[in-house]
From TrEMBL:
Organism of provenance: Urochloa decumbens
Superkingdom per UniProt: Eukaryota
Compartments, as annotated in UniProt: Endoplasmic reticulum membrane; Membrane
GO cellular component: a single term: endoplasmic reticulum membrane
Protein name: Methyltransferase
GO molecular function: methyltransferase activity
Keyword Transport: no
Family classification: Belongs to the methyltransferase superfamily.
UniProt record, GO biological process: methylation
Signal peptide feature range: none
Gene3D superfamilies tied to this protein: Vaccinia Virus protein VP39
UniProt keywords, alphabetically: Glycoprotein, Membrane, Methyltransferase, Signal-anchor, Transferase, Transmembrane, Transmembrane helix
Record membrane topology: Single-pass type II membrane protein
Organism classification: Eukaryota, Viridiplantae, Streptophyta, Embryophyta, Tracheophyta
Pfam families: Methyltransf_29
Length: 581
């Protein structure tokens, strides 16, 4: 008021100034309103509690005022608020950052693990796996730590000399030797052009056991038989993937492959794939179902993957049938295909190889698959678009039977069964079971058939459309906060811990990244099928267990409502046991 009065004396007459001077009653009213507004704000944000004890920081007050169980806030179209301070998304693997990391470790009381744990995968630990049966490779399945005594309580270190991976697409063809310091494959697969050492780097020429001319030429040969270029094939599964060159070279054709192989079947093969920036997971066909819902993949592939497709009543091929979409393709190269040419190099008899091929053909026929073509080293079969004819045929041919009990999408420690997973019912022989998909890229934003048909309880078309738009806004906000998003090639491998409909991944589809969409088993896990119908990939996961991947797999981990999801379920036992990031 003193400053205002002085200004008035300079520019106004004393009478005018007196007329404009507020009365004491006005000042008291304004002070009362401000005080009332302040008290209402305190009550709204947590009530009138006792003052914190001496030494308690501001963080304590915030923690008591905001409930972890509150609904996830939505982003409005308004300008987001400025963060309190800059967020640090930089890597801290280098020696220059070790002082900061060590200080953080002391504060959180987590020491670094011994160097031997630099590639530790808790649920695929080699030593623990040896306690389980070798029959059907059960010992190579997931076997997580059974007690606290087995669980690591330390931070998994990077190997000595670790450096940030090369940016995509350079990373497809080259990786730092120090990041995956294993030479075994360069010797074992030297003549097959998988991988070679070049000074302090690995080079990936794109070769494979059954594609000596390179993965690109091999894929071109497949494209002469089935349509790889019109958008009708988007999702693929590569069983026994090696270093995932097949999946790596499909990416330029807008086909997204989920590649998997067992831990240490060939030293670090999946780790090499991930270091290249190619989607991959540790996995094996043994006794459990693959961790994907029914009708996920447009095609599946095996190139000398050494899986005994003809054994155990065709169990493994039956599992491939479960995860293939209606009308999907299965591609096989390597033994026994083209055995008349290769039997000497495979060191097997013609009788043995012919018997194996006839057995595989018989299993495929019992699944009602149609053999599209066998050309050179490649054979391709196609799954029917519905089961009208198949069910008629199986009134005569009783084996394998149609499954009657198990949920076709259930695939978290669910055992495989030697029975055909029935496709959804149709009313016409020309109808595609479960609904026909749009071609890529239309299928990314089109309402998925599982939602349009009402088969996912509580989910409507409007909810899906709103979720898609919401994640476009949220990802835009992330990019305004995380400066590295705008750096070309800085991020490549992304993980969404609670993907729901895959909206986060869909919003990033134009960026040079891929997203592993995880759907927690404690929530509405039926949405993973929606993710695949959109042309994206992912897996089921229980976040109370370790993930089937190597340390340092992901450049960015996205977690939306994960704690809220687990709150009230196993909150007291939920902890970050995963060391796979």
């Amino acid at each position: 008021m003193a400053v205002g009065a002085t200004a008035a004396k300079l520019h106004l007459s004393s009478a005018a100034a007196a007329a404009r001077r507020p009365s004491m009653l006005h000042l008291v009213a304004v002070a009362a309103l401000c005080s009332l507004s302040y008290l209402l704000g305190i009550w709204h944000h947590g009530g009138f509690s006792a003052a914190p004890a001496a030494g308690a920081g501001a963080a304590v007050s915030i923690a008591t005022a905001v409930s972890c169980a509150s609904p996830t806030p939505t982003l409005s179209s308004s300008t987001p608020s400025t963060p309190a301070g800059p967020l640090d998304f930089a890597a801290h693997h280098t020696a220059e950052g070790m002082e900061e990391v060590e200080a953080a470790q002391r504060q959180r009381a987590y020491d670094a693990c011994p160097a031997k744990y630099s590639e530790y995968t808790p649920c695929e630990d080699v030593e623990r796996s040896l306690k389980f049966s070798r029959d059907r490779l059960v010992y190579r399945e997931r076997h997580c730590p059974a007690s606290d005594a087995e669980r690591l309580r330390c931070l998994v270190p990077a190997p000595k000399g670790y450096r940030n991976p090369f940016p995509w697409p350079t990373s497809r063809d080259v990786a730092w030797f120090a990041n995956v310091p294993h030479k075994e494959l360069t010797v074992e697969k030297a003549v097959q052009n998988w991988i070679r050492v070049d000074g302090d780097k690995f080079r990936f020429p794109g070769g494979g056991t059954m594609f000596p001319r390179g993965a690109g030429a091999y894929i071109d040969d497949i494209g002469k038989i089935i349509p790889l270029h019109d958008g009708s094939i988007r999702t693929a599964l590569d069983t026994g993937c090696g270093v995932a060159s097949w999946g790596a070279y499909l990416l330029s054709r807008n086909i997204l492959a989920m590649s998997f192989a067992p831990r240490d079947s060939h030293e670090a093969q999946v780790q090499f794939a991930l270091e290249r920036g190619v989607p991959a997971m540790i996995g094996v066909l043994a006794s459990n179902r693959l961790t994907y819902p029914a009708r996920s993949f447009d095609m599946a592939h095996c190139s000398r993957c050494l899986i005994p497709w003809q054994l155990y009543d065709g169990l493994y091929l039956i599992e491939i049938d479960r995860v293939l979409r209606p009308g999907g393709y299965w591609i096989l190269s390597g033994p026994p295909i083209n055995w008349k040419k290769h039997y000497k190099g495979w060191a097997r008899t013609t009788e043995d190889l012919n018997e194996e091929q006839q057995a595989i053909e018989a299993v495929a026929k019992s699944l009602c698959w149609k053999k599209v073509k066998e050309a050179g080293d490649i054979a391709i079969w196609q799954k029917p678009t519905n089961h009208i004819h198949c069910k008629t045929m199986h009134k005569v041919i009783k084996s394998p039977r149609f499954c009657s009990s198990q949920n076709p999408d259930a695939a978290w420690y669910n055992k495989m069964e030697a029975c055909i997973t029935p496709l959804p019912e149709v009313s016409d022989i020309k109808e595609v079971a479960g609904g026909e998909l749009k071609k890529w890229p239309e299928r990314l934003t089109a309402v998925p058939p599982r939602i349009a048909s009402g088969s996912i309880e509580g989910v409507t078309e409007e909810m899906f459309v709103e979720d898609t738009e919401l994640w476009k806004k949220r990802v835009g906000h992330y990019k305004s906060v995380i400066s590295q998003f705008s750096q070309k090639g800085r991020y490549r491998n992304l993980l969404d811990m609670n993907a729901k409909f895959g909206g986060f991944a869909a919003a990033l589809v134009s960026d040079p990244v891929w997203v592993m969409n995880m759907v927690p088993t404690v929530g509405n896990s039926t949405t993973l099928g929606v993710i695949y119908e959109r042309g994206l990939i992912g897996s089921y996961q229980d976040w109370c267990e370790g993930m089937s991947t190597y340390p340092r797999t992901y450049d960015l981990i996205h977690a939306d409502s994960v704690f809220t999801l687990y709150n009230g379920v196993r909150w007291r036992t939920f902890c970050w046991k995963w060391t796979g990031s």
